[in-house]
Amino acid sequence: xxxxxxxxxxLGVVAPAPAKPTGGVAPTAPHIDAVIGRPLVVPVSLAPGxxxxxxxxxxxxxxxxxxxxxxxxxxxxxxxxxxLVSGGEWRARTPDQDRAPGGFWSVVLLLPRDAIGQGVWIDxxxxxxxxxxxxxxxxxxxxxxxxxxxxxxxHPIDEERLASPTLRELAEPCRLDPTRxxxxxxxxxxxxxxxxxxxxxLEGLTEAPGSFGDPVVEALARxxxxxWRIALARLWLDDPVLADDLKRSLVATADFGDxxxxxxxxxxxxxxxxxDLLTAPDERRRTALAxxxxxxxxxxxxxxxxxxxxxxxxxxxxxxxxxxxxxAPIATLAWGxxxxxxxxxxxxxxxxxxxxxxxxxxxxSAIANAGEVGFTLPLFARPIPASPPGALAxxxxxxxxxxxxxxANERRGSLPPPGWETxxxxxxxxxxxxxxxxxxxxxxxxxxxxxxxxxxxGPYGSPSAVLRVTPDGxxxxxxxxxxxxxxxxxxxxRWLARVLLPPGxxxxxxxxxxxxxxxxxxxxxxGWPRRVLPWLDEPGRGAIDCSAxxxxx
Length: 553
Known about the structure:
Layout: H1 2-11, E1 25-27, E2 32-34, E3 40-46, E4 58-60, E5 67-76, E6 89-93, E7 104-110, E8 120-122, E9 125-127, E10 129-131, H2 135-146, H3 159-162, H4 165-175, H5 181-189, H6 215-238, H7 240-250, E11 253-255, E12 261-263, H8 270-279, H9 283-295, E13 300-311, E14 318-326, E15 332-337, E16 344-348, E17 352-359, E18 365-370, E19 373-378, E20 384-385, E21 391-393, E22 397-398, H10 402-406, E23 422-428, E24 434-441, E25 452-457, E26 465-470, E27 473-478, E28 487-491, E29 494-500, E30 511-519, E31 525-528, E32 542-545
Parallel strand pairs: 2-10, 20-32
Antiparallel strand pairs: 1-3, 3-7, 4-8, 5-6, 5-7, 8-9, 11-12, 13-14, 14-17, 15-16, 15-18, 18-19, 21-23, 22-31, 23-24, 24-29, 25-26, 25-30, 26-27, 28-29, 30-31, 30-32
Helix pairs in contact: 2-6, 4-5, 6-7, 7-9, 8-9
């Protein structure tokens, strides 16, 4: 009998679709997972005209009233977007407090331990509850089986990668987000259940190290973590190897060498996967869902680092630098080519990235491969002619994000919103000198004191000069600036700068190698001619043909 009871707990009870709400509060999720003895945070929508200040009346199907509170959960203070979406600061507000935009209403329910199997009526609407296993009982069974097998809560990635400061810094937004903290903990402790006393309701939730200061926000974070623990524990009981593969995929990383390890995990479809794993009726369905998710993940990605700032010493042809990442767990070979019949081959271990050289031999695109996965990457192989009135460096694109990098999509989400555009015009001044005219748009109410533009001259990886321009002036970070003092000007809606190019920036054949980045007043970085990986300082280069100025039109 005990075996049958445990089997029922492991499978869970699949609730039917929620009834159509008839009251003023309705759940926003297709189903609601409830865990025995844990606070339940249910995101909801309010019907038009429903006063948030009106008290909630909540009762179980057996008629008992339960504690229910309506709160507004909001995120404020979000930083500029980076590799991952910013974490920000989360807090719960009561209906009578000021509310920041962009949040969501939720009902906090404190359900008794003997409420299992029941739904709850709120505002005359029945909220069907999908009751999950008691984590203590389920995880006890997992622990029993683990005595002679691999622990289900081991780290999905090795300790050497976990030691990377870049990984911890880039993953930090997950730790600060209650809906994503499960991923941070899966990365660093395998999502092992905390060894701490049980507190009923919201009591004591903010006391453990790493907890959010708001008990409702902490309850939301723990609720999500518990759902993932149960889903992964069930899958581990079905197939430990598959469960381990799924965990590695959920916190996949890419090693760029020199201690730089970065998150490289999928975000799309993850919440759907969790819902499906928790509602799957049997082992066969669960394992199929996990395998389908793993099969759908990208196995490689590629990008252009630099288009043509170097020259091959043997052939005299320009060289592009392309990056290739092997996202699969198995090692392969990587190579890049831009028309050359003899591409450079490089061994590439699983979860690693490499930058390859591709000699440009009459092609306007590079081919990058990681094993059988190939990418065609357009190149700016021809210099931009600097004929009057000049050569325009534009558009500027936002740093790579993890999602666009995994998709190998340099254009998606890359352009600035209206009012934040940037442009650099390389032209001749009245005295025949080469200058860069910089224009940075910004809303009139933006504080431009934190703005800066950096100009990189010379080959990628070995700049001859780097100038940092702000609304107040210019600083030479490498090399020396031009002889003339730069001119800057701030006016409503934009700031301008005029910078004389440093000596030697334009080569003897008239070629100027230039890369530009702008950090705006909101801390966002934009680059030309290519997107830049956020942990790198240096942009790629665009080639400008300054000899075109004196040619006959």
